Amino acid sequence: FIVAIIKNFIEIGVPYFAGKAKKLLSGAKGDPSPNEKILKIMDDEACLGDYNQKGLDGTYGEYLEMVIQYGYCMMFGIAFPLTILLAAINNIFEIQVDK
Asked: CA–CA distance from 91 to each of 34, 55, 65, 80 (Å)?
């Protein structure tokens, strides 16, 4: 679970801090208007590639990760009950990462 937490932090934290650094270096001041926010989101989404073209086989990898995690919870849940709580927290982070 430590590896999953580190991977989630890298997936969430690195782009967040990179965006903050870019904003500080560009000297942007104030919040953009709602229309500018929408246009920025649309531009960012238009630049994204197709999900299947990223070298992934659709959502198979995501489901595989959940099945493996479920297996770990079933095997080690009795010996270490905190495993189930850690898995639930990891799933919440995964939902945020995959948005």
From this structure: 31, 23, 10, 18
Cα–Cα distance, 9 to 11 (Å, whole number): 5
pLDDT, residue 12, reads 78
* Terminal-residue alpha carbon distance, the chain: 21
CB contact at 8 A, 87 and 72: yes
Q: For residue range 40-52, what is the model confidence (pLDDT) as tens digits?
A: 888 887 777 665 5
- Give the type of residue at 5: I
In contact, 11 and 95? CB cutoff 8 Å: no
